[in-house]
Each structure stands twice: as structure tokens, then as C-alpha cells.
Amino acid sequence: MSEALARIRPEARMVSICLASYVLAAAGLLEGLPATTHWRHAEDFQRSFPAVRVNPEVLFIDAGRVLTSAGAAAGVDLCLHLIRRNHGSGIANQVARRCVIPPWRDGGQAQFIERPVPEATDTGTAPTRLWALERLDHPIQLTDLAAHAGMSRRTFTRRFRAEVGESPGKWLTQQRIDLARHLLEHSDLSIDRIAERSGFGTAASLRQHLRGAVAVSPNAYRKSFRS
User: Fold this and answer.
1) Which residues are in the HTH araC/xylS-type domain (predicted)?
2) In sequence order, what are the residues at sequence separation of 6 or more whose Cβ sits closer than 8 angstroms to the Cβ of residue 138?
3) 3: Cβ–Cβ under 8 A, 6 or more apart, which residues?
């Protein structure tokens, strides 16, 4: 298949969905180009094809002649992107409504990676993580987390990194972002109220953090889930 792809005429447009990016990369068609694939396989993909500029955070990438998407659902977004580019937003929206899917999710929007709730064990930092998740609308400092776990700040940070793979502060911010995204998707709360509920305090702070995470504003994010 890789040999057949390599013989495709130069002006042809090629699209991969999910792990089909491996086929394009094996044929040398992604060398030096930005590309994406399913986030679970992004590290392996980068190791296998170091000349490819892998971005595991986005839904899809339009590199001109070659377009790649993340998971299967992101492939639908990429197809709608192609329809919109070739036939206009009106036709793309009609297709989206017929398929009962959101009419627009920008390619630069982050992949919707579900983060598991920590197991309720009696050891380590899991109980403290559960405690924090129940009060995201309150200010929570490293000192609070360490005190709840009965550890020093240094010990708690070391244990937390070993169990979770990131710092307590980064994890806490991500949980606030995840809660805000859930409320934007499933509630009619105002942006100000969602900012309060998720612990960001102000709409401006929520806007800044959400843009950093998924590259869209709260209003644009909410709009993408409503036809």
C-alpha cells in the first residue's frame, strides 16, 4: 500500500484518519510536515517516524496536500473541514445536521482525552485527589493538598508526581479545565458562573486557560457542541 501511495500524482490530496497516518508516514509522505494521530499512539508514532512533526494535541491538521486526523471522531471533523473548504459552510452544516454531529470543531482544538477519576485507595495521594475534585470551586493550594494527605509539601509533591506523572498544580488546573468543559457542553450556565464553579474565579481567567488547553474561547467551545 505504501508503494501505491508513493505513486499518487503530486497534486492529489491525501487524508488519513486515526492510525492511517502510519501508512502515509511509511510512504514518506509526511516527512518534514506537521501531522497528528490518535493520542494513545503519538509517542510511538514519533519514535517510528522522527522526521514527522507530530502534534498529538489537535483534532486534525491540514498541511495542504496531506491532511491527518486524530481519532475516528476527529476524522469526521476533518471530513467536514474538507466539505467546508470545497463546497462552503452551508453544505458542511447540512451534512453535519444529517449525521447529527456538531457542525464545527476547529482542527486546532485539542483532542477530547478523558482523564480517569483516581481510584479511592487508602494510600498515596488518591484520597486527596478525590477530596480536591469535590471542591474545585474553592481555592486549593499545595499546602492544602499536603495537609489533607498528612505529608510535607515536598513529600506530597514527590509522591504525586510518581503516581500521576505531573505536578499537583498542573493536575489541579487540568481538573478545573475539564470541569469547565463539561459545564460548557452540558449546561446553560453563564460563562461567569462556570468560571466560579470550576475555580477559575473570573471569565477572563477561564478564557485564558481554556484557550491554552483547546485553542478556542468558552463561547466557541460551547457553540461547537450545539447545532
Assistant:
1) 126-224
2) 199
3) 27
